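quick one, 273 residues, struct below
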Amino acid sequence: MLTDVTIEKPVLEPTGALSVETVLSVKHWNEHLFSFRITRPAAFRFRSGEFIMIGLKGDNGKPLLRAYSIASPAWDEEIEFLSIKVQDGPLTSKLQKIEPGDQIYLGRKPTGTLVTDALLPGKRLFMLSTGTGLAPFLSLPRDPDVYEFYEQVVVVHSVRRVSDLAFRDEMEGKWSEDPLVSEQAPNQFHYVPTVTREPFDGHTARIDKLVESGALFEGIPGAAKFDPETDRIMMCGSMEMIKQFGAYFEEQGFTEGSNAAPGQFVIERAFVG
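---
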């Protein structure tokens, strides 16, 4: 006779630095990419583009935490994250198995430099991302303040495979289902996906090549190049991309910004492992 076996999920206890939240939904985009939404504490405040520590109970019984950019905007009643699946990753090997109803640790102090406060005023905001570096750039274009600060809001997302283009439908639809930016986004938001290792009906070159050829700027009002007078840049993704473009923008006369001293470009140094 077969009997159902119930696997006990670990019960998490909040700490001074961590609250315990509930997983609300999980979406698996492909075999190595997923997103999930969790409950948001009533007192939790953050700026669109920031990151936070999240985690699960480790094998030693202590919280196992990593920094994750928040993919939902500051006004959302839930909190969303985008993650890779690393089979032997200390956290992601466990995190990829979460289901609705499971518990998860959430830090109480969000932070980060991918925020409008760290940039000087400008006309065009370019958000350059690779892989799951897209996450903060899902938050910012859904924040109505961003459309007040910039005339053009551009998300560039470089991935290896077409199935890695998470949230593609929402961005191609210019956030038409979003209650707070559906009026501004059709005229101000631009989505530039590029797929480097599979056939694709759009761009198939790396971001640096799109910049060199001018293809990245097609359909976007303004010059077909980056201008430190008018353009502001955010970058999140592979270390290679960030190092390459950090050096490039400095050569072009851009200054790196921070929360204490706003500049013309910012990068995020927190990575998921």
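The first helix runs from residue 92 to 95.
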